[in-house]
Design brief:
Bound molecules: dodecyl-COA
Number of strands: 9
Shape: globular
Protein name: Acyl-coenzyme A thioesterase THEM4
Distance between the termini: 37 Å
Organism: Synaphobranchus kaupii
Keywords: Apoptosis, Cell membrane, Cell projection, Cytoplasm, Fatty acid metabolism, Hydrolase, Lipid metabolism, Membrane, Mitochondrion, Mitochondrion inner membrane, Transit peptide
Largest sheet: 7 strands, antiparallel
EC number: 3.1.2.2
Radius of gyration: 19 Å
CATH class: Alpha Beta
Helix content: 25-40%
Strand order of the largest sheet: 3-4-5-7-8-9-6
InterPro entries: HotDog_dom_sf (IPR029069), THEM4/THEM5_acyl-CoA_thioest (IPR052365), Thioestr_dom (IPR006683)
């Protein structure tokens, strides 16, 4: 049986979707043109500022879930994926939840389109938008990663394989690519915990270089959640955890759905 919270969230999302569509349709009918009166959309979005989001808005029913294994994954990446996946919660046909405390977060290249209520908006506002970390089509060339969240401990781990397009110093991963994956993992973790957020700051210390093509773990844990502020800490380690590559803290501020679309 689906949890009551999830059912409630679905109802809210359906209502959200209607509100968003209503705002859009008014403008489309008025102008007969897909250039949107952004202020009208913004004002209709203001009404949904206090919506409580589902812990994770994406189901595994999108066209391509980028967090699933593909042939470019090295054996270490596959092994770690299977390790965490074997501890993941599964739901039986009868709705019973079995197995461990982890869940794998599905990941798509179009964050708006596959979020509840976002399908209509994505056609007009961000038709060409693609998630930065998921827009290199060649498998294994860029960011290969899968994120798992531990619901009991409220921690998060990402298995990350850095492809050849992420080079910085010869043979090593670019610092900006490391920052990107840390921002993505902590941002995803914060969104899972607190709903829609924006990164307010990310403070990074690079301790040891990451070899290009290697598989590392990105760990994220909660420092503090205080009102709109979610403070997380993050470490990138070698896949066996013995070597620290990078550490960071990130502050995420909860925002309204409208903020994310403007
Ligand atoms: C589901 C999808 C999955 C999709 C999965 C994809 C995951 C990818 C995640 C990527 C995430 C990103 O890269 S986001 C993109 C990069 N980030 C940005 O562009 C953010 C730009 N900045 C902003 O938009 C804004 O400054 C905000 C939203 C962060 C805050 O603005 P605001 O909403 O007006 O809030 P404001 O009143 O200023 O601040 C609220 C409280 O936070 C504090 N505060 C605000 N900023 C800071 C700061 N930098 N450092 C310290 N503290 C700060 C304030 O002092 C205040 O504390 P007090 O007085 O209340 O105590």
């Amino acid at each position: 049986m689906l949890g009551r919270g999830l059912q409630m969230t679905r109802v809210i999302c359906r209502l959200m979707s209607r509100k968003l569509s209503a705002g859009l349709h008014r403008n489309i009918l008025k102008n007969m043109h897909p250039s949107i009166d952004i202020w009208s959309v913004r004002s209709s979005l203001k009404n949904i500022r206090s919506v409580t989001m589902a812990p994770w808005p994406f189901s595994s029913s999108g066209p391509r879930d980028y967090s699933l294994p593909n042939p470019s994954w090295r054996s270490e990446m596959q092994r770690l994926y299977e390790h965490y996946n074997s501890m993941c919660e599964v739901e039986t046909e009868g709705g019973e939840k079995l197995k461990g405390p982890w869940i794998r977060l599905a990941s798509y290249n179009r964050a708006l389109k596959y979020a509840p209520g976002g399908q209509c908006l994505s056609k007009f506002l961000q038709a060409k938008a693609r998630l930065f970390t998921r827009n290199i089509e060649e498998q294994g060339a860029g960011f290969e990663y899968v994120v798992f969240v531990n619901k009991q401990e409220k921690t998060c781990v990402c298995v990350f394989q850095a492809g050849h397009l992420l080079e910085g110093p010869p043979g090593l991963v670019h610092g900006g690519a490391i920052a990107t994956i840390m921002d993505s993992v902590t941002g995803t973790h914060a969104a899972y915990l607190s709903g829609p957020v924006m990164t307010a700051n990310l403070t990074i210390n690079y301790r040891s270089p990451i070899p290009l093509g290697s598989v590392v773990l990105v760990h994220s844990s909660v420092g503090e959640i205080d009102g709109r502020k979610t403070l997380l800490s993050c470490q990138v380690t070698s896949s066996d955890g013995s070597k620290l590559h990078t550490e960071a803290t990130g502050l995420f501020i909860s925002v309204s759905v409208g903020n994310l679309l403007m």
